[in-house]
Amino acid sequence: MGSDTFILAHFRTRCAPGGGECDHGLQSLIARISRKQNEVRQFCAEMHKPPTMPWLFAIGGMIVGAALFGAGAAFMKLLAA
Question: What is the biggest distance separating any 2 CA atoms in the chain, rounded to whole angstroms?
């Protein structure tokens, strides 16, 4: 049984409705759950960020250069023939 489940079961069985101690305990439990949810939301937001990969520009440049070199070589071969 998880700690949150245990705490909720404790409040259901031990606390009388409207008790001051119970209200404080429930507020702290709700605050803790909210903090955990915010942590999960922040983690998910970080996971969905697009990765920054500057080496992709270098590889793209090499591919473009090779394509232009091949096109130039083919053109020169056409002119020589």
Answer: 98
Query: What does the pLDDT read at residue 50?
Result: 74
Count of CA atoms in the C-beta half-sphere (13 A) of 47: 6
Could you tell me which of 40, 28, 24 has the C-alpha nearest to residue 4? Answer: 28
- Tell me, what DSSP letter sits at residue 13? H
User: What is the per-residue pLDDT across 17-39, written as a single tens digit (0 to 9) for each?
Assistant: 555 555 677 888 888 999 999 99
> What's the distance, Cα to Cα, between the start and end of the chain in Å?
82
pTM of the predicted model as reported, rounded to 2 decimal places: 0.38
Using DSSP's 3-state secondary structure scheme, residue 16 falls into coil
